[in-house]
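Reviewer comment 2.1 asked that we show a complete input and output for one of the modelled complexes. We chose the magnesium ion case, as it is the one discussed in the main text.
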Amino acid sequence: MAVDMDTAREWLTWSFSPTIGAMVFTLLLSLSLPILFHLFLYRQRAAVVVPSFVLLGPSGAGKTTLLTLRGTPTATHTSQAPQTVTCTLPTGITVESHKYRASDDPSTKKERQIEVTDTPGHGKLRQHAYDTITAAASLKGLIFVVDAAALSSPQGLSEAATYLHDTLLVLQKRHTGAKSSKGPAGIPVLIAANKLDLFTALPAQLVKKRLEDEITKIRSTRAKGLLDSAVDIEGDDEDREWLGEGGEGDFNFGQMKEAEIEVSVLGGNASAKGDEKTQVDAWWTWIAQQM
Ligand SMILES: Nc1nc2c(ncn2[C@@H]2O[C@H](COP(=O)(O)OP(=O)(O)OP(=O)(O)O)[C@@H](O)[C@H]2O)c(=O)[nH]1
Ligand SMILES: [Mg+2]
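Response of the prediction step:
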């Protein structure tokens, strides 16, 4: 102990003495500290997890097509398993949390990366999508792709609405289940009304209305116990099994706000024939707004 004190005192005396060694040492220390501090903070920033988004929706809606636009190209055929691709947002779209950053800031490029998980839309493979939603930690949003042309047929509408209803129910349960502890907050949902290049496609506003009306029907059918919910997530029996407040009357997406789920409907087309152009900017802008 005494030896320690002695060494400490000797060291202190030395550091305050006007020797050239002490002065150089102090100078170097004071110059390098800010640099080390900067490097430390920079590393921490770089280790931030990439925000992730999930693509889901009925089979043939155009999820894989949309992903191929920015990620690595894969053949579009019915997907069998989920795949995650890291994409970079297109230039010209500003990430919400960085709108005040200089455009030539080198970290801006890094911050534009997102991870998108494409899930299969086939009825029997939807568990993949539900698992992805419940597991993903840095989940920033859900993109539910629908074929706006298929919605004009009763089967197409019913399939899309059932899947959407179940997805929203999963999200609602995720939110209710998290209330007790510090858990995941609400997740924003984008309903991407795809294939608007087709003559038979319904415009985005109509897509919204049709889906809401159909979910009203599904909800009342399920409430009567005529149909079992396809979603079965562990939890209390007291958990609400119906969508939205009370589960009665007409459903509209605004009712999801109670579970902190903001639903937006935006139109576009992920593929185009001939000299027509793909229209996907609205969707990328929405993605950027969630980051
Ligand atoms: N006309 C038109 N066709 C599209 C558009 N987007 C996708 N398609 C076509 O729709 C078909 C299905 O697209 P996919 O991307 O494979 O559909 P998916 O949603 O991945 O389907 P699953 O993998 O089965 O869940 C393909 O033949 C695409 O070329 C669009 O905006 N307009
Ligand atoms: Mg696919």
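Residues 245 and 255 are 7 Å apart (CA to CA). We note this here for comparison with the apo prediction described in Section 3.2.
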